């Protein structure tokens, strides 16, 4: 008797009641109430919701880092944040840079405090590789959290953690 088919409101595929029983909010697709989704789409939707509710806000608020261009020995104190339209990484200090998110090829998080068991590490910075507009050559930029700004340390750590999550799920960063 129970042969009713339901379609996932995210991917559109048909599933039996058991396989499409998760009801998850989908506000980005203009659904007001939670809707039926298959297990795979429900997991993606939950991760997206976490990203939009947590990481995106942290990235847009920004944090302060010492920024080093390429192989230079000089670093500059800059506020790094995601632009309001979420297309650029904006760096403001004595200099001003805007790096188009789509041009970022790698994000490497720098840590300290490595233990043999792999625990107790903390993010202290990151290295970005990106292409400048009109160039195929990769450029590098290093971000280091300043130890002497203890009030900024937690903010910088949160910002680096958000960048790490974004870089692990690379598609999310590029789909904004």
UniProtKB/TrEMBL annotation:
Gene Ontology molecular functions: zinc ion binding
Keyword Oxidoreductase carried by entry: no
SUPFAM superfamilies per the UniProt record, alphabetical: FYVE/PHD zinc finger
Protein name: ZFY21 protein
InterPro entries: FYVE-type_Zinc_Finger, ZFYVE21_C, ZFYVE21_C_sf, Znf_FYVE, Znf_FYVE-rel, Znf_FYVE_PHD, Znf_RING/FYVE/PHD
Family annotation (PROSITE patterns): ZF_FYVE (PS50178)
Taxonomic lineage of the native organism: Eukaryota, Metazoa, Chordata, Craniata, Vertebrata
Residue ranges occupied by any FYVE-type domain in the UniProt entry: 1-41
Sorted UniProt keywords: Metal-binding, Zinc, Zinc-finger
């Amino acid at each position: 008797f129970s042969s009713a088919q339901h379609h996932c409101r995210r991917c559109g595929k048909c599933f039996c009641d058991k396989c499409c029983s998760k009801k998850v909010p989908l506000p980005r697709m203009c659904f007001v109430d939670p809707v039926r989704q298959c297990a795979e789409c429900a997991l993606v939707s939950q991760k997206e919701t976490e990203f939009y509710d947590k990481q995106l806000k942290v990235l847009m608020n920004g944090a302060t880092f010492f920024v080093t261009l390429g192989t230079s020995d000089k670093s500059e104190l800059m506020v790094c944040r995601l632009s309001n339209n979420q297309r650029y990484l904006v760096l403001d200090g004595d200099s001003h840079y805007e790096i188009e998110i789509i041009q970022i090829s790698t994000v490497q998080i720098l840590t300290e405090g490595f233990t043999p068991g792999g625990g107790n590490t903390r993010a202290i910075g990151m290295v970005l590789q990106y292409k400048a507009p009109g160039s195929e050559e990769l450029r590098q930029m290093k971000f280091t959290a300043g130890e002497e700004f203890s009030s900024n340390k937690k903010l910088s750590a949160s910002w680096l953690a958000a960048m790490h999550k974004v870089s692990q799920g690379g598609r999310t960063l590029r789909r904004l």
